Amino acid sequence: xxxxxxxxxxxxxFFPSVSFAETKEIISEGTYNMGDGETPSVAEGRxxxxxxxxxxxxxxxxxxxxxxxxxxxxxxxEIQVLASGIMEVExxxxxxxxxxxxxxxxxxxxxxxxxKIKVRVNLDKIxxxxxxxxxxxxxxxxxxxxxxxxxxxxxxxxxxKQLAQAKGEKEKxxxxxxxxxxxxxxxxxxxxxIGYQHSLNKEHDSAIEAYTKAIALDPNxxxxxxxxxxxxxxxxxxxxAIEDYNKVIASDPNDALAYNxxxxxxxxxxxxxxxAIEDYNKVIALNPNHAQAYSMRGATYALSGNxxxxxxxxxxxxxxxxxxxCKLLQMALEKR
Length: 336
Prior knowledge:
Blueprint: E1 23-34, H1 40-70, H2 76-86, E2 87-98, E3 111-122, H3 126-132, H4 136-165, H5 169-200, H6 204-217, H7 222-234, H8 238-251, H9 256-269, H10 273-286, H11 291-303, H12 307-319, H13 323-335
Antiparallel strand pairs: 1-3, 2-3
Helix pairs in contact: 1-2, 4-5, 5-6, 5-7, 6-7, 7-8, 8-9, 9-10, 9-11, 10-11, 11-12, 12-13
């Protein structure tokens, strides 16, 4: 299962707070039948996921109507991300019932899980969230999280078929082990999404806690390290942020985003300009069209006193349509 993480936003945007008394409450249910190799926590999580997805469809319809009235001009994908970001989920009830004869095994597919939730769609942060989801990477990353869920569901169904056809106890145990592993990765993805939603709402401590739980379940979860690094960065814990970006780079030495995010911390936050420039050089070598890297490298050159190279980089960033690069270029040329 491949995981993804968001690009750091280098220009901080501040939005005015707005308040709305209007809320929407949605009641939704989800079910799941646990099979061999699955744990109760995974089965319950799948039932909860189904309930959330059902509620999200209704929340999306509600949010779409509101955004049309307010003329916020969002795409369907942006509306879905926005709706998920402002949903508050409360578990009202949950049950585990026995189906069939469990005399042979407590995990022989004989447990049926049911969960009932109440979702509140609060409009207090809708305008602020609407601006955040306009960032292209936010929608793309959210879609990839959902694709990971879909892939996991298909994998588990295929493994269940293999288990039913398994010959001999050894083969059965091997398939059950794969099912258990798939469940563990699913739980990691669930914690990642929880962290992702906290990140969207700027709830950094809660985001860090969720990403840490994802990493505990999947120590190779590069996306969780990357997003936790962003949260540490936002909290001013720069050394921890660098440690997490190092983990991503160790996992994939060609991850341009990790180099970019680490470069921001080295240059903008720690004043280690040479190390920042090295990281931006790596980003550009991996992706010559990474406009933000040119813009940030230019800013780093400017901070280190090399305005000639700064202007050159800002010009390249501006030619690629990077707004910040254009602004910095204009300011530099006006001061000459």
